[in-house]
Amino acid sequence: MSHRATMDDLVSLRRDLHRHPEPAWREFYTTARLVDELETRDLDALYVGPEILDADERMAVPDDAEIDAWVERAREAGAREDVLDRLAGGYTGAVAVVERGEGPTVGLRVDIDGLPITESEDGDHLPTAEGFRSENEGFMHACGHDAHATIGLGVLDAVLDSDFEGTFKVFFQPSEELVAGGKAVAEGGHLDDVDYLLALHVGLDHPTGEVVCGIDGFLAVSHFRAEFTGAPAHAGAKPEEGKNANLAAAAAVQNLYGISRHSDGATRVNVGLMGGGTATNIVAEEAFIEGEVRGATTELMEYMEDRAHTVIESAAAMHDCEVEIGVEGKAPSARSDDALAAIVGGVSEGVEGVDSILDRDDLGGSEDATYLMQRVQDHGGLAAYVGVGTDHPGGHHTRTFDVDEATIRIAVDVLAGSVERIAADRP
Amino acid sequence: MSHRATMDDLVSLRRDLHRHPEPAWREFYTTARLVDELETRDLDALYVGPEILDADERMAVPDDAEIDAWVERAREAGAREDVLDRLAGGYTGAVAVVERGEGPTVGLRVDIDGLPITESEDGDHLPTAEGFRSENEGFMHACGHDAHATIGLGVLDAVLDSDFEGTFKVFFQPSEELVAGGKAVAEGGHLDDVDYLLALHVGLDHPTGEVVCGIDGFLAVSHFRAEFTGAPAHAGAKPEEGKNANLAAAAAVQNLYGISRHSDGATRVNVGLMGGGTATNIVAEEAFIEGEVRGATTELMEYMEDRAHTVIESAAAMHDCEVEIGVEGKAPSARSDDALAAIVGGVSEGVEGVDSILDRDDLGGSEDATYLMQRVQDHGGLAAYVGVGTDHPGGHHTRTFDVDEATIRIAVDVLAGSVERIAADRP
Amino acid sequence: MSHRATMDDLVSLRRDLHRHPEPAWREFYTTARLVDELETRDLDALYVGPEILDADERMAVPDDAEIDAWVERAREAGAREDVLDRLAGGYTGAVAVVERGEGPTVGLRVDIDGLPITESEDGDHLPTAEGFRSENEGFMHACGHDAHATIGLGVLDAVLDSDFEGTFKVFFQPSEELVAGGKAVAEGGHLDDVDYLLALHVGLDHPTGEVVCGIDGFLAVSHFRAEFTGAPAHAGAKPEEGKNANLAAAAAVQNLYGISRHSDGATRVNVGLMGGGTATNIVAEEAFIEGEVRGATTELMEYMEDRAHTVIESAAAMHDCEVEIGVEGKAPSARSDDALAAIVGGVSEGVEGVDSILDRDDLGGSEDATYLMQRVQDHGGLAAYVGVGTDHPGGHHTRTFDVDEATIRIAVDVLAGSVERIAADRP
Amino acid sequence: MSHRATMDDLVSLRRDLHRHPEPAWREFYTTARLVDELETRDLDALYVGPEILDADERMAVPDDAEIDAWVERAREAGAREDVLDRLAGGYTGAVAVVERGEGPTVGLRVDIDGLPITESEDGDHLPTAEGFRSENEGFMHACGHDAHATIGLGVLDAVLDSDFEGTFKVFFQPSEELVAGGKAVAEGGHLDDVDYLLALHVGLDHPTGEVVCGIDGFLAVSHFRAEFTGAPAHAGAKPEEGKNANLAAAAAVQNLYGISRHSDGATRVNVGLMGGGTATNIVAEEAFIEGEVRGATTELMEYMEDRAHTVIESAAAMHDCEVEIGVEGKAPSARSDDALAAIVGGVSEGVEGVDSILDRDDLGGSEDATYLMQRVQDHGGLAAYVGVGTDHPGGHHTRTFDVDEATIRIAVDVLAGSVERIAADRP
């Protein structure tokens, strides 16, 4: 018999996860904690770490020293050694599977990583007031993924406790904040038999009690990092011997912003980070820029990406430098299917606490759930990205972000109800 | 028996040339007028137009319509039809040769072209006051080449009238102002047996009565013209279809000025002219830049030229454009040989009106006499570039430049005396 | 009794106008020809040239020499001297007014200028085959404004011939192609009592028989011209004395394209034209850039315009230059009112030859009819921009553009019917 | 009676200093070690730390945490607590004064700081082989200032042991490597009565046994650091709200390199360091560039500095950012006086081991001894910068640089002899 968490259990779990935020590919404590819970349920399969994804498709994987430091931190926070062993090599995340007779395969995707933001110490900030502020100083669950993971478990329990017939999979996906984990999970094999997929986000400026049945308007995105290598020289004595990596990088920055707008829709470009050089009197041998391009469609993002690479390579050539361009994160655009959104809407009408139901809204940002949605849609399945409102005092990705915990119960009811209805209706 | 011009004749000739300034490769009247004079002398050979140069090495040759217009203008000014026939195809300039027994071959190089500058109409400007202001409106002898050509004839007469033994050649070189004629004349064959070469410039901020025996400090120079070709597009409706030639040209300009200074000596870069596009709402299909690089040595100029080509080609590639780069003018650096300069100094001491003799001075600009000097020096000969001062009211290349005609006699005496002494001393 | 043109008359008029395309602010023949026609109608008022607009608000007015040349050309083509007198000073266009009892004031706006495009000489191009190709070589009615003016007259005749009650005004607006005339006409006073305004465009990739009742999606636009003034210097001898206008212009171009995209909607920027400098070896004293910014709304265009001015001024300051920025054309965004569009749709259903009616479509470009629409809407009136399809062999603004003349009758019926219905219904 | 160091003592001191290299303004151990020595001499005054300079003129002073760390490191290495107390607040360096009867005041300036370079661990590198490799890992005496300080003491001893009459001051100057200490010492008061000043550098690609009597060709230099502040924004959701500090910095870099060359002589510009931003998807709020300008004369450096500030400020304005520009180091140009150089040459002829004497050579780099030289010359004194050759296996500022210790004795003899002769001859 499977254990079913009470709402108090879920709140407690969420607060524990909130105390231990871990950035992309470093969700060791988080995964171990979820495994602790999942093992007490009546699952048919539980995959963790390397078993859930295609290792070659991971992006922005930290170096070993960084990974080791976070494993150690997880260990000190109480993560089970046997689970940490299964995650060796920088693999995180889990997929839980239950099979309940004949019926379609329904998936739910939640993400689990935190952000490199220092959490507010202000007394008005509930986690601080209630004592579950981040213990990993400089990192924070500032986007609600602690709630997402918790809701994932809650939905699993509710489905196990229902008349659901079919197969249900919960994807606890790592590394969404860098859009670096979605592709690897999408190509990990566990999506291939999924007929219907729901993905979840809380908040997004919608208040507690509001549900958005199908979110669209994902900007496809690609993160790049370009490393320029020139040659150093004494800037006073032999400037002509230098191959100026700083100048190459500056020319790239200037011209990246000059990539033409596109008449097919919105595009974006940003060089968020740059750096280079060692001393005022040395022509810089090395410089880097790190940034992103986006598009309202995957095609528009790829248009920007192609142009960006040309600009960067030409800027390097212009100043006689070499350049290596790496892709550090990526997500396509996607669209929520009407049929699934309609079911979410119908279910939501009957959920206590829901007082506003929106058919559609635009995300206006990027998300790598789109890789998973696309995977399902590509083989003929349906997918929807569901928004469950929450009163959040600070904006997403700010130091005072927090989740109204009443949202947890609402989200569990909306999503578990939808999973059951989808399996029954096979839309 | 050869006719010898009086000083009055020479002044009269200089004023006639001054009235008919002709820019590079368009010196039709000038050449015809010189031929008129030269044919009355006892020459052993007179080469004109295509006979004096290597046609393939001409740079910045105007198009046919432009050439035809200047031929017609020369015809109207009284140029002889048979001479114009010999210049057909845009060839100008002349080489006069006299052979007087056994002895070395000595050359004198003078240049003959004018500038696209509108001459002052001010009453204080002597050519205006005396009625010999330019009749080719918009063009002017603003650098003294009218005097140079005249002095060339004067020296020829003086040498013919002397005890000179050997061969003497006067090179009336076209197209110096664009540094576009020197290379073609240098490779035209007539320099190959020259043992000693003198070249002349009046003025250069030296007063009447001052002689500079050997000028150095020529900046080697290369003129380039880059034509960018992209693709047009409606800037509102389909901006992404454009390949923006204006943007490529702007990126080139920005980065050309960023070519590193060189520790071996002075360098220069300038984009003097640019243009592109057809309408505000069309992404520009075509753009061009025209400019120059210089260096204190030929190597430094070539360093700049190499880097400039890389910048231009990369700027085109950066914005998906094609580019063609043409060289429109070029001159190496050069150095006056001490032995010749010493002879010029010695002769100058005995010339009436000379009251200041400088061994050396720097030009600080560019000149394509350097091609001729280098040609002679490369096969073991000696060369010197001689400055003969003149009180000039306005600076070189300004609307009020003028030559103190007393300089003509001084220059003839200094140069003719030097030619004789060189032939006698064979330094 | 007013003369009413037959369809043959209208076709003949359109072909005459087609033979005499005149660019912005130079529509002298066109205006005179229209006045010839209009004077034979039973008008209550006919305003021409300076009487129809606010002279201070004209943009991109050509210089006197240019205007004089086109007046002379119009005279030679047969324009009446007394009309040309009324247009003195570079004023063109006309407003015809008829008052027919009590009722609202309805306006119709058509534009009359041609483009600087050389018309195709191909035998497949109907104007060439039929002998009404442009007689103003290098200029062409390549956007159908010849048909627009003709339709304006046709609608006037039809309204005069109908039961219309109220006041009807036809605005023959000059200088739309440069978006340089709309603002002056909008502020000329004749719009102030207009309750309903229709504007017309033929074609726009809609075939003959298709009507678009209300066009939206106008990109607001602003044309700028920036003139940079620095200081000249010899690029070899004294480069540091130059204030490099070419470099300032290039920095402006590079950074204009770098103005950030806007999350509120589409924006555009283009530097269509640039130029500068006088010689390769002179640091450029003067340079200019000419371009445009656009936005999906007037606010977005103004965001771009503000940022563009900052960039241009900073680029000048950066290289120690002065700059003057002029606005050479401008148009806001606008929206067609539903109530008018509905009437146009209803009327179109009954017009012979109309086989497809679209409620809405996006222009995706710019138009200064928006100034007139906004003027009417600002004082509480309604406005709609109506598209009447025409089979055009070449695209707008291409050498092979042509209008299917069957469109003229359809457009007259749709618009005259709408004017009558609007006056009757007063929506 | 004053202690006089033997050559063995001096070598031992030099090796001790070499083991403890300290970067600019952090020479705590070095100063304390020198004070240990100096206190055993018969001095008339010994000034240390804040007593030797004008505190307001210090540049590039590290923050307190950095200073505290180096004080602690010096303490652990054995620096005397009472001396460290006198250096509190980040003051280093010393001035030793001896008065020996009537006579002029002669100064000797040596510098004492190390570099942030990791010393070679190769067995061929003598300090490694002999066990005096740097104990401050990552820092190294890679320019011979350990020898300079040692020679300063040796010359003091030799002068004390001679017939010198007058006042002799040795300036142990901190922070030369950042050209950040010279100005403060020059304005500290101790130079004001100095009639003659000698400054010293070993090596400079001259072999052991070669002396350069008067070095010239100092490039005047100014180090700048510009900090750009814009506004952050989400690059996908609200890019228009960002004020892009990275873009401002890139525009500055591009245009700094475009500052025109100068016809009066060599100039330099380099942006050696740059950085900015926090995340790929955030418009960068902050960025910085750090670099330098140089000129063959102080005027040329100031021309570059003026232009650089204009470029940086305009780049900030262009992208709506603020910028603060700080000067982090500075040195004028200077010239060695002939009269002093002649004395150095004369003395060198009699010094054992000197086998080559050069009157003049160009430094081709920058040095802030020029501030001290200028100070003396400005009040009518004379100054010379003396080079004493040393066989150095690696170049200056490389990991394998080392000083041939035979140079120490030669330099002491040349300089002490020159000090005596100067006092005697009063040139």
From TrEMBL, chains A, B, C, D:
Cofactor details (free text): The Mn(2+) ion enhances activity.
Signal peptide: none
Binding site for Mn(2+) 1: 397
Gene Ontology CC: cytoplasm
GO molecular function: dipeptidase activity; metal ion binding; para-aminobenzoyl-glutamate hydrolase activity
Gene Ontology terms describing biological process: folic acid catabolic process
Binding-site residues for Mn(2+) 2, renumbered to this chain: 143, 145, 177, 201
Peptidase M20 dimerisation domain location: 224-316
Swiss-Prot/TrEMBL cofactor(s): Mn(2+)
Organism domain of life: Archaea
Record keywords: Manganese, Metal-binding
Gene3D superfamilies, alphabetized: Zn peptidases
Xref: NCBIfam families: amidohydrolases (TIGR01891)
Protein name stated in the entry: Amidohydrolase
